[in-house]
Recover the amino acids of this structure.
C-alpha cells in the first residue's frame, strides 16, 4: 500500500511494498485503450498509433530488447511471484488466461469465459492446440492443477485468498481437455477480476514436487508465454528467447533481456548510452532522457491512488472527528500538492474518489474539501480543537513522501495545526504503518493498486477490513460493501459503489491526492508499443507484439 | 609454529560464536518482519500465521538461533526467506565476481601505494608529499557513488570507451569483456583503498627514516634512492601484510556502494538486497562467511609475519 515511486528501492522492498501491503494483487489492470487480439495474426498491423509516431514502419522480425529491472527476480513461478521484477518477466514467460483493459477482456490462453444463470459457475474454455515451451500440450488439467496448488495450504501461494469466498474455496473441475468449470460457493461478482492473476503452471513439471515454491524446477521455468527461458546470470541479466509455437503467433523479437540495474542514476546513464532500451523514469529525470531524442517517453496510468492517510485511532483523538479531517482538506491545495510531489501535473491526475479511474463504477464527482483556509479555521473552531499537534511519519529517502509532508506541515501551520515530522527507515516505517494498534502517529502518505473491481477495496474501508490501517469506521459503508460483494445486477452494483464513494468522500476518510502515472522510456527504434499495451507493474501486457523497426 | 597455529585456530571459535550472536541479536532487534514480504491484503490472519509457522519464525528467538547455529556448524547456512535458495550457494555463486573485483582493486591499490607512500614519506613537507596527501584526503572523503557516476559519465557516455554497468555484455563469454566491465569499479575501489594504504606507508616510512640503520647507510654513502627502495621498503612492507590480512573480510563482503552503482553481481549487492528484505539467513551467512575470512586472514598475516620477520617469531 506504500509508495512504489522510488524504483531505487530494489527488489525486496518493491516486493514488500507491492505485495504485502494492500496493493498489487487484485489484478494489475489499468487503463489503456489499445486492446490487441491475442489470438490475432502473426504480423502486427501498422495501425495508426495514438499520440506516438511509433508504429510507422512495418513490423520486422529479429532483434533483442533490453529492459532495465531494479533487482533480481525472486521466483519465476506465477503462483508465487509478487515482486515487480518477477511479475514483469512472468508476463512474457507465462501466458495468462485473459487480461482486462478498461473493462474489456482480451483472451490469451482462454477462448471464452461464461457465467451461468445462477451466477455460481464459470465455464472457462481454453484455446485448442496450446503448448508449453517444452512441447507438451497445455490442457484443462494444467489449469485445474494450478488452481488446486494455489488453494493447497501447504504450498503458500499468496493468491490463495482470491479463491476463498466467504470462507469457502472455489472448486475447479475439468470437464474436457479444453474446458474447466469454476464453482463458486456463493455469488461473487468480484471473483472474475482476480482471475487475471492466474497464469497456469505446467502440471507435468510440478506434479511430483512436494514444495513447488522451493522446487529447483523454478530455475528452469517452463511457461506458455511468447518467450521461453534461455539463461539467467544472477545479479546480471536474464534472457528469454522467442517461442515459435506461441498461440498468438510467432513473436517478432528474437529475445528479451531483463538487465539488473540497481542504481537509478547509473541506470539512466546506461539508458543514454544505449545499454538499456526500456526503463522506468522518475519525473525529475524525464527532461534529461528526453533531451537525447532517442526515447519515447510514455506516461501511463498505473491504476494507483496516492493519498494522505489519517490515523483515526491516534492518541490525539482529533482525527476521529470528521470536522478536523475536513479542515485539513480545506487547508491544503491539491493542485499545489501535486506540483510539489510529482513535478508536473502530467504525471498525476487530481483524485477525489478512493477508487482509481480504471475501476468499475468509479466517479471523481464526489464531495471534496479543498483550498479554503477560512473554512478550515472555522471547522476547527466548531470542533473545539486548538493547538493541535499532529505527527507525520515519513519513509526516509522517499522523495514524494518527503515533499508532501513538508508541504502539509507548511499549510497546516496557517490554520494553527503543528505538524511534527518523523522520518524512519523503510522497515520501521512499514512496521509502524501496518501495526493496527499504533496510536503514536496521525498522518502518513501512502498509495495502493487494487485492481479493477471495487469489491477489492472493502479491505481498506470496511471497519473489519484487513488493511484498514486508517481505522475508518462507518456502518453505512460496511453495509454497502457487503451488499456490493453479493450483488449480481450491474445497475444495482453501480448504485451501491457510487454511494460508497460519496460517503467515504463526505466523511473525508482519507485525503486522496492523485491518480499517479508510471513513466517509461522506450528506445525509439522499437515499435508495436500500442499492440503490446503498456500495463502497470509489468510494462508490456503482450511483449510478442514488440518489434525492432 | 604448528602449536601456535592450532591454538589460534581454536581461539577463533568463541570469536565466531560471539560474532554470530551479536549479528543475530541485532537483526532480531531491528524493526521489520520478514513475513511481511509474503503477506498480501487478502490474506487472512491464519494464513499469515501459517506462513510464519512454515518459515519457523514463530519460535522464540533463541530457539531460532540454536537451530541456525546447529546447521551452520555442519556447513549448512540455511535458505533465503525470500527466494528459498540455499544461502551458501548464493554466496559462492557471487564470490568470484566480488573476489575478482576486490582482489584486483586491493592489488592495484597496494602497487600504487608503496612507491607513492615511500616517496611522500621521504620528502616530507615538500610538494610531492603534499600532492600525495591531497590525493589521500580526496580518496578518503570523496563519496564513492559520486566518483563512480562521474567515471561512467565521462568514459561511457562521452568517450564510449567502457560499458557503464554489469559484468558482461549480454550473451558474451569472454575474459576481455569482463575485464572491460571491471575497469571502472576496480578504479573506484582501488582509489578508496589507496587513500588508506598510502597514509599508512607514508607514516611508517617517516618512522623508519629516523632509525639508526638509515643513518648508518647514509654514513656509508648510500644514495637516498637505495636507502629508500632497498632498505626502508623492506621494513615498510611488513605492515602491509597486516593490512592485507585485515582486507580479507572486505574481499568477500564486497563493496556495497560500488557494486550497487555498477550493478556488479557480487556479494555486496546480495547483502544489500538481503538487508532490505530482512532476509536474515542471507545476512547471517554473509556476516559469518566474511568473519571467518577476516579471522583467517589475520591469522595468515600473523603467521606470514613470523616468516617474513624472524624478530617477531623469537619474541613469542
Amino acid at each position: 500500500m506504500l509508495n512504489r515511486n522510488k524504483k531505487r528501492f530494489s527488489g525486496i522492498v518493491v516486493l514488500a511494498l507491492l505485495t504485502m501491503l494492500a496493493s498489487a494483487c487484485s489484478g494489475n489492470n489499468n487503463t489503456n485503450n489499445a486492446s490487441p487480439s491475442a489470438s490475432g495474426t502473426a504480423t502486427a498491423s501498422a495501425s495508426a498509433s495514438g499520440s506516438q509516431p511509433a508504429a510507422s514502419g512495418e513490423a520486422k522480425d529479429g532483434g533483442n530488447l533490453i529492459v532495465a529491472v531494479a533487482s533480481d527476480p525472486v521466483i519465476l513461478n506465477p503462483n508465487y511471484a509478487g515482486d515487480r521484477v518477477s511479475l514483469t518477466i512472468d508476463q512474457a514467460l507465462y501466458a495468462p488466461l485473459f487480461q482486462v483493459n478498461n473493462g474489456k477482456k482480451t483472451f490469451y490462453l482462454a477462448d471464452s469465459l461464461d457465467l451461468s444463470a445462477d451466477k455460481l459457475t464459470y465455464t472457462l474454455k481454453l484455446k485448442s492446440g496450446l503448448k508449453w515451451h517444452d512441447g507438451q500440450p497445455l490442457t484443462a488439467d494444467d489449469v485445474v492443477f494450478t488452481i488446486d496448488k494455489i488453494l493447497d495450504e501447504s504450498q503458500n501461494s499468496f493468491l490463495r485468498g482470491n479463491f476463498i469466498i466467504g470462507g469457502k474455496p472455489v472448486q475447479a473441475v475439468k470437464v474436457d481437455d479444453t474446458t474447466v468449470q469454476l464453482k463458486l460457493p456463493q455469488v461473487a461478482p468480484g471473483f472474475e477480476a482476480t482471475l487475471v492473476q492466474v497464469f497456469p503452471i505446467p502440471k507435468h513439471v510440478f506434479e511430483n514436487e512436494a514444495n513447488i515454491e522451493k522446487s529447483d524446477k523454478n530455475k528452469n521455468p517452463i511457461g506458455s508465454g511468447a518467450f521461453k527461458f534461455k539463461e539467467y546470470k544472477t545479479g546480471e541479466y536474464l534472457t528469454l528467447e522467442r517461442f515459435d509455437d506461441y498461440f498468438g503467433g510467432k513473436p517478432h523479437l528474437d529475445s528479451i533481456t531483463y538487465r539488473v540495474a540497481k542504481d537509478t542514476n547509473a541506470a539512466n546513464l546506461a539508458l543514454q548510452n544505449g545499454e538499456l532500451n526500456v526503463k522506468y523514469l522518475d519525473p525529475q529525470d524525464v527532461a534529461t532522457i528526453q533531451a537525447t531524442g532517442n526515447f519515447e517517453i510514455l506516461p501511463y496510468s498505473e491504476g494507483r491512488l496516492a493519498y494522505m492517510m489519517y490515523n483515526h485511532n491516534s492518541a490525539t483523538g482529533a482525527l476521529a472527528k470528521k470536522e478536523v479531517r475536513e479542515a485539513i482538506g480545506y487547508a491544503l491545495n491539491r493542485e499545489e500538492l501535486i506540483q510539489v510531489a510529482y513535478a508536473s501535473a502530467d504525471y498525476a491526475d487530481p483524485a477525489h474518489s478512493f477508487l482509481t479511474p480504471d475501476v468499475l463504477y468509479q466517479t471523481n464527482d464526489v464531495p471534496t474539501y479543498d483550498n479554503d483556509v477560512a473554512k478550515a479555521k472555522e471547522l476547527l473552531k466548531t470542533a473545539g480543537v486548538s493547538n493541535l499537534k499532529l505527527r507525520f511519519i515519513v519513509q526516509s529517502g522517499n522523495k514524494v513522501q518527503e515533499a508532501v509532508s513538508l508541504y502539509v506541515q507548511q499549510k497546516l501551520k496557517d490554520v494553527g495545526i503543528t505538524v511534527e515530522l518523523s522520518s524512519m527507515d523503510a522497515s520501521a516505517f512499514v512496521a509502524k504503518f501496518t501495526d493496527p494498534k499504533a496510536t503514536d502517529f496521525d498522518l502518513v502518505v501512502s498509495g495502493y493498486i487494487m485492481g479493477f473491481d471495487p469489491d477489492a477495496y472493502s479491505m481498506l474501508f470496511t471497519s473489519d477490513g484487513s488493511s484498514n490501517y486508517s481505522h475508518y469506521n462507518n456502518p453505512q459503508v460496511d453495509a454497502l460493501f457487503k451488499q456490493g460483494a453479493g450483488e449480481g445486477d450491474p445497475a444495482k452494483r453501480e448504485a451501491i459503489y457510487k454511494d460508497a464513494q460519496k460517503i467515504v468522500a463526505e466523511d473525508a476518510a482519507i485525503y486522496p491526492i492523485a491518480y499517479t502515472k508510471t513513466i517509461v522510456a522506450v528506445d525509439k527504434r522499437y515499435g508495436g508499443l500500442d499492440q503490446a499495451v503498456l500495463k502497470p507493474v509489468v510494462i508490456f501486457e503482450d511483449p510478442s507484439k514488440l518489434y525492432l523497426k | 609454529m604448528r602449536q601456535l597455529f592450532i591454538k589460534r585456530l581454536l581461539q577463533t571459535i568463541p570469536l565466531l560464536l560471539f560474532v554470530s550472536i551479536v549479528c543475530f541479536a541485532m537483526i532480531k532487534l531491528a524493526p521489520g518482519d520478514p513475513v511481511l514480504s509474503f503477506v498480501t491484503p487478502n490474506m487472512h490472519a491464519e494464513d499469515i500465521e501459517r506462513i510464519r509457522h512454515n518459515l519457523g519464525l514463530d519460535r522464540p528467538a533463541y530457539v531460532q538461533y540454536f537451530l541456525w547455529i546447529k546447521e551452520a556448524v555442519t556447513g549448512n547456512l540455511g535458505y533465503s526467506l525470500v527466494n528459498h535458495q540455499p544461502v551458501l550457494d548464493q554466496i559462492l555463486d557471487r564470490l568470484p565476481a566480488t573476489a575478482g573485483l576486490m582482489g584486483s582493486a586491493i592489488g592495484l591499490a597496494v602497487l600504487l601505494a608503496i612507491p607513492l607512500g615511500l616517496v611522500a614519506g621521504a620528502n616530507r613537507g615538500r610538494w610531492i608529499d603534499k600532492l600525495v596527501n591531497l590525493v589521500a584526503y580526496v580518496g578518503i572523503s570523496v563519496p564513492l557513488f559520486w566518483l563512480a557516476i562521474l567515471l561512467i559519465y565521462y568514459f561511457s557516455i562521452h568517450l564510449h570507451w567502457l560499458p557503464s554497468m554489469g559484468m558482461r555484455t549480454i550473451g558474451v563469454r569472454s575474459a576481455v569483456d569482463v575485464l572491460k566491465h571491471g575497469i571502472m569499479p576496480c578504479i573506484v575501489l582501488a582509489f578508496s583503498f589507496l587513500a588508506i594504504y598510502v597514509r599508512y606507508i607514508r607514516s611508517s616510512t617517516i618512522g623508519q627514516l629516523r632509525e639508526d640503520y638509515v643513518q648508518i647507510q647514509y654514513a656509508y654513502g648510500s644514495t637516498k634512492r637505495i636507502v629508500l627502495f632497498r632498505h626502508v621498503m623492506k621494513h615498510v612492507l611488513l605492515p602491509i601484510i597486516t593490512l592485507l590480512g585485515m582486507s580479507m573480510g572486505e574481499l568477500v563482503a564486497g563493496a556495497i556502494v560500488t557494486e550497487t552503482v555498477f550493478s556488479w553481481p557480487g556479494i555486496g549487492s546480495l547483502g544489500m538486497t538481503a538487508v532490505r528484505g530482512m532476509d536474515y539467513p542471507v545476512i547471517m551467512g554473509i556476516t559469518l562467511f566474511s568473519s571467518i575470512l577476516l579471522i583467517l586472514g589475520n591469522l595468515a598475516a600473523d603467521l606470514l609475519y613470523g616468516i617474513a620477520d624472524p624478530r617477531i617469531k623469537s619474541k613469542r
